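> run fold Crotonase/enoyl-CoA hydratase family protein
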Amino acid sequence: MYQCFDIEVSDHIAHLQFKRPEKLNSMNKAFWTEFPQALHSIDQSAEARVLVISSTGKHFCAGMDLQVFQSPDPKMFGGEQGRRGEYVRRLVLQLQECFNTLENIRIPVLSAVQGGCIGGAVDLVCATDSRYCTKDAFFTVKETALGMTADLGTLQRLPALMPPGLARELAFTARKFKADEAFNAGFVNQVFDNTDQMLEAVMGIAKQIAAHSPLAVAGTKHMINYARDHSVADSLQYMATWQSGMFHANDLMLSMAAQAQKQAGEFEPLHPVQAPFEK
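> ok
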């Protein structure tokens, strides 16, 4: 049981849904512990082949909960300067890792956004593989307006998801980036009239992903992420090495047979992740 969200796994699709609409699904202190734990649990079990992240209420997520700012850790603002700096750096890296996990788990992650997606929530959706939203959705890099620099991934990922000049404008101005503009910039894949329509469509996309070989999908995600951060030449070399170890005829033959029979393939799941030498 989680305080900040519910999780359901069905037909190889994991659905993580924020459940604090009365607090605008803001990220309280519990979120930063629960969210990475949930992601690792989903990845480790290997039952799910795709993850959908959605929300409840009027807004997707208002970012960091005000409670976190109102009762800050005293080690962040007091004490000897060198030790304070080391502590803050380590804290930011730990928070960054919460969203890095979205990229590092083996399955694709789809985010479905309604209403406001603000501050830390933009950091989150930037780390997902694909984004979808309702026509009333908007995105805001709020940190600039609060007198701080966004530090959990937006500034690093957003320029790769839309024209860099637009990403800079959004970060400098902290203005609302609405659904139609997000779609035209390529930040979101599709815009829907309402939340129900969006979830139905996104679950349909997740179902298509889950029907494929989990090994093929995991390899595809890993290679796309690698290519983003490396040269074409390096990425092609790595791709060749990956195929030499990961490509096997079993899933290929199962896929071809399933397509010929016009039915879903029955693929072996990936092995669960476990501690070294654990039986």
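Strands lie at 5-10, 13-18, 50-54, 109-113, 116-118, 130-134, 138-140, 177-178, 190-192.
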